[in-house]
Amino acid sequence: MNRNDVTEMIVATKIRKGLKWGDVAKTVGLSKEWVTAGCLGQMTFDASQAATIGDIFELPQEAVALLQVVPYKGSLPTSVPTDPLIYRFYELINVYGTTFKELIHEEFGDGIMSAIDFKMDLQREPNPAGDRVSITMSGKFLPYKTY
Amino acid sequence: MNRNDVTEMIVATKIRKGLKWGDVAKTVGLSKEWVTAGCLGQMTFDASQAATIGDIFELPQEAVALLQVVPYKGSLPTSVPTDPLIYRFYELINVYGTTFKELIHEEFGDGIMSAIDFKMDLQREPNPAGDRVSITMSGKFLPYKTY
Amino acid sequence: MNRNDVTEMIVATKIRKGLKWGDVAKTVGLSKEWVTAGCLGQMTFDASQAATIGDIFELPQEAVALLQVVPYKGSLPTSVPTDPLIYRFYELINVYGTTFKELIHEEFGDGIMSAIDFKMDLQREPNPAGDRVSITMSGKFLPYKTY
Amino acid sequence: MNRNDVTEMIVATKIRKGLKWGDVAKTVGLSKEWVTAGCLGQMTFDASQAATIGDIFELPQEAVALLQVVPYKGSLPTSVPTDPLIYRFYELINVYGTTFKELIHEEFGDGIMSAIDFKMDLQREPNPAGDRVSITMSGKFLPYKTY
Amino acid sequence: MNRNDVTEMIVATKIRKGLKWGDVAKTVGLSKEWVTAGCLGQMTFDASQAATIGDIFELPQEAVALLQVVPYKGSLPTSVPTDPLIYRFYELINVYGTTFKELIHEEFGDGIMSAIDFKMDLQREPNPAGDRVSITMSGKFLPYKTY
Amino acid sequence: MNRNDVTEMIVATKIRKGLKWGDVAKTVGLSKEWVTAGCLGQMTFDASQAATIGDIFELPQEAVALLQVVPYKGSLPTSVPTDPLIYRFYELINVYGTTFKELIHEEFGDGIMSAIDFKMDLQREPNPAGDRVSITMSGKFLPYKTY
Amino acid sequence: MNRNDVTEMIVATKIRKGLKWGDVAKTVGLSKEWVTAGCLGQMTFDASQAATIGDIFELPQEAVALLQVVPYKGSLPTSVPTDPLIYRFYELINVYGTTFKELIHEEFGDGIMSAIDFKMDLQREPNPAGDRVSITMSGKFLPYKTY
Amino acid sequence: MNRNDVTEMIVATKIRKGLKWGDVAKTVGLSKEWVTAGCLGQMTFDASQAATIGDIFELPQEAVALLQVVPYKGSLPTSVPTDPLIYRFYELINVYGTTFKELIHEEFGDGIMSAIDFKMDLQREPNPAGDRVSITMSGKFLPYKTY
Amino acid sequence: MNRNDVTEMIVATKIRKGLKWGDVAKTVGLSKEWVTAGCLGQMTFDASQAATIGDIFELPQEAVALLQVVPYKGSLPTSVPTDPLIYRFYELINVYGTTFKELIHEEFGDGIMSAIDFKMDLQREPNPAGDRVSITMSGKFLPYKTY
Amino acid sequence: MNRNDVTEMIVATKIRKGLKWGDVAKTVGLSKEWVTAGCLGQMTFDASQAATIGDIFELPQEAVALLQVVPYKGSLPTSVPTDPLIYRFYELINVYGTTFKELIHEEFGDGIMSAIDFKMDLQREPNPAGDRVSITMSGKFLPYKTY
């Protein structure tokens, strides 16, 4: 059994029991973004979180142990994603990537936005012309230093 | 002369004159995100916007005309970006891509977040533990329909 | 069991029972294009549609549940398709892609033809010099907006 | 001078003189789809057509000669297109490719839709919910034969 | 069971029973080239041909049905083949590809040699300096037409 | 100046003077297949052949010298060709590659068809249903030997 | 069972019984280089050689038959090898490839060193500064001929 | 001017003056293999060697200086070589790579054959059945050590 | 069973028994860096080390034998790693690779740092601004020699 | 002029004047590792540092300005490096990447070693068996946090 098997168990049980990620996250007591990423094999749970996840998804003990091991990250099967929803994010980087770079450097100087010390929030934004997906990302700026 | 040459002219003049994208955007009267993307060859300006950009960056007439032609988009030289700042966004898609997919489908059903009917805002978020980059994206949800 | 397994079950039963996609679509009450795409794992059925598909293809309950979950889309095993029929469509994009771009921008300005708010119809076009395949695609135009 | 240089000359003159592909096509007396593809370096003009194109775009004699030579086709710089408009067509093949295959084989048997004995028509389709792009493709069916 | 499994069954039985493709083709009553391609999963048999193949290779009923379904074509595992015999054909295209293009266009104008309305014949050519492989290919010329 | 520049000079002069490869080959006294491949930068001419080519295409002395140097071979810009005519040959390898392998090994045992001790002939084959391209290839069989 | 399974059986038995390739080759009566390549699935054994290999590695009858079938060659999982020992050979081609080309053409004219009519010998070369690996390759020169 | 420009100068002068690598190497006083690799931009000359090379090929002072700078190595334009002569070496690694690995490890244990502390010798081997290319490589064995 | 299966057994047992690599290494009596690499399938153990590893991880006899066979090295599934921790090392090579090259050549001349005669040490470096990872690598310099 | 042009100017002047990176770094007053990376186009200089670099390498004013603009990072032309010195570092990641991952997670938990808040030191390590390259890297550990 590896972490990928655990992800498949979680997804299968979620469908069978008709669970929602938002409710799972509330039971765990953390954001739906982080908990979903963890259930999909991208984050590491501590013992108590793993036990909760194990209860919700009726996982065997070996799977609960695996949830506490840092996984090999990367959730996509190809370097350019084929799924239309995920591709749109890749397209945004292709179109706006150099814009991100210019504006962050203009404001902060040389460095990056951390993808580790990072959190995000995804919400429905009601709109008469059609509801919108609103995503707010917040990552610590990390400057390159001279030495 | 092609659009890429125009981008290089703009960038060279920006460095020489010490301009800031934020100020350019104010003169044009639009957001700094969209104006920067346009100056970097990803968006199409109308005649009046192009004239303003032409004045700011001292562009020849042919370049001003090119700013009004829809460009072949895609601002990165490789399918996996090598620049650390831009890579972090690619990494976020790799790690969180399936999470985006699950949460948007849970909230909206089958469909995508538009990367066309889309806007974003990038801000400095002061923080005693180190300032943060805050990015808010808003894209219309487009549902797949049966037919 | 995952969505790919469901697709294989559907295809195997279709061959064994000698079914036709056109007849399946009529039973479901939707177009043959959308129903076939759904049966091949690219679209999401609602509960009633999934039940009908389940009856036709004698699927187990778990498979019927999976038909109602948004799939990870992308039906081809390689980025350049090897199958001659499918390659011809890829070739059309390679040869006519910039023509699509020029003509759509000339008519509509900067933006795209939606691949989500999209439908298509595929018909046999009788012709004495050899019958033809006729495909009509219709996608909403989505303009890039300034902001 | 090569065919690519001719394409760049044509595009530059088109922008400078504010020409439209539709009007160019009318002068040539053929469809806007075929004429645009030819001007973008994908089709071969005969002597009279090339002379007309040469007049419209003020091309030198060497360029007019090149328009009559069969070009090395393929108009895109990468195997997966980065431009959002062109990518949507690639996405359609990724999502609907196996559907095209199933439905054409169901109707016609083993074979392909020709991308050579092929024509297409691209129109604006007015729609109160937003105008649509309508594309009709027609290609001869070519059967695999036993031998 | 899928078409690839059928190919593996055929190849295993061929080795076990010491069959030859040439003899299989004679029993089927078609060329050895087409029959071998079909047995290797690239062509579609009709009911009577499939029954014959099923008898020769002792295939189960499900396999015989699969032989009559149009397969997803493409028989090589990598885009540049690693097997030395097959690579030599790829090398010929690499070295002579532009020559094919020039000579066919010189003789026929713009268009292609069909790979669908196509047949070939492979023979041993006795030669005192070492026997030679002789391959004769014949494909219909398909012209690009203006429209 | 490199061999690629020489190829471009030859092609430009051929267009300007309206030459035909078949006539060039007759003047050189060799097959049109080999001479065209040489003119396109894939073969090495001897001093006398190079002088003839130099006369026909009005090449400078340095170019005539380069025609006598063994070139770095490979005439295609991408590993999967984008040009429809050349792609059809690649498709034939994809579909028939394993058939070539089976039939050649059945007739000759383990080994390859040489792509070096190789010649070919390309002819128009008149046919009331549409003329055909006929290509005859002949390559020495080279057996793997044990040692 | 396929040839790859046979290779795995051979390797597993070799480890279990502590065999050496050099001794296997002596029993077969051929060079250790060719026999090892054959055991690793790259060469074709005749009936008597296959029987010997079958005895040594305790292979079932089906495996012995497979050893006599020409395999699909290519023993590496990626186009740039990751294993350090094998990579060093790839590096030699990267660094010395054009040198091989220049020196062979200087000595022999246009053509190649055969990789089919080829043999090699790998030996330990004692050296006080550290023993060396000595590899001698011998391949027939095959000239390109005009025709 | 960069090292690649120097290589092009050397090659152009070699063709113009009809020089041979073997003679150049004799003048330099080293093997033809190493000197050719150096002239092709893969090795670093010392001051005296560079002066000699500069005299032979009539290089400007800046080029002579560049010959003494360690180059960025790698002489091939693609990861799988397209040139038939060079490809044969790549094919040998593909077919014999795992054999090299097995035999070297059998003789020496875990480690590699150095591609740095390495030399080789390339000779014509007369043979009544056709002369052969003989290449002898010698590289120090470097063992992995535990620590 | 192959080496990869052994790695999976080791990792599963490590999780189940809550072992630490540092403690495993102490029992084996070597550095934690080398022992971990070996347990992950990259190094070769001798008989006594393998027996110790077998005891710790409760491996079957066949697995203990496999630990003593030189593995096919390369521990990552893609050529550009997707895991954020491992990617950072790849990024360092991308950003600092040419710097490594310049500084090592400035100090040592043409040659490389051995990745075989190599050892490393990974430590926690306490720091009030956040603890740091400290890695010390030491590899023998291997000079290119003339011959 | 772009940053790459500035790098080429710096490298050309360094060769012409026989400068050493170590001395350049001393004049700038920072480490040789960071200064070299900056001169090779990977880091951003402040005004005073850029002026010093400009003096040393006799750069024009426009180049000095470019040194103060954050560059698009990534110094290698291919995703797998071809240069033997740089490849050895890539090989270390391939062989030891999962070891880095295991040991850092064992010591620190889930997170990464920063490649931004990072410094390194490269030294010659005298050794009677051959001098060694010693590289010490130090990067801040950045933990993934739950939210």
UniProtKB/TrEMBL annotation, chains A, B, C, D, E, F, G, H, I, J:
Keyword Lyase among UniProt keywords: yes
Source taxon at top rank: Bacteria
Function per UniProt: Catalyzes the reaction of cyanate with bicarbonate to produce ammonia and carbon dioxide.
Keyword NAD: no
Protein name: Cyanate hydratase
GO MF term list: cyanate hydratase activity; DNA binding
Pfam families for this protein: Cyanate_lyase, CYNS_N
Keywords: Lyase
NCBIfam families named among the record's database cross-references: cynS (TIGR00673), PRK02866.1 (NF002773)
Gene: cynS
EC numbers, comma separated: 4.2.1.104
Catalytic activity from the UniProt record: cyanate + hydrogencarbonate + 3 H(+) = NH4(+) + 2 CO2
Domain Cyanate lyase C-terminal: 75-147
Coiled coil ranges: none
Similarity comment: family membership: Belongs to the cyanase family.
Positions of the catalytic residues: 88, 91, 114
Organism whose genome encodes this protein: Paucimonas lemoignei (Pseudomonas lemoignei)
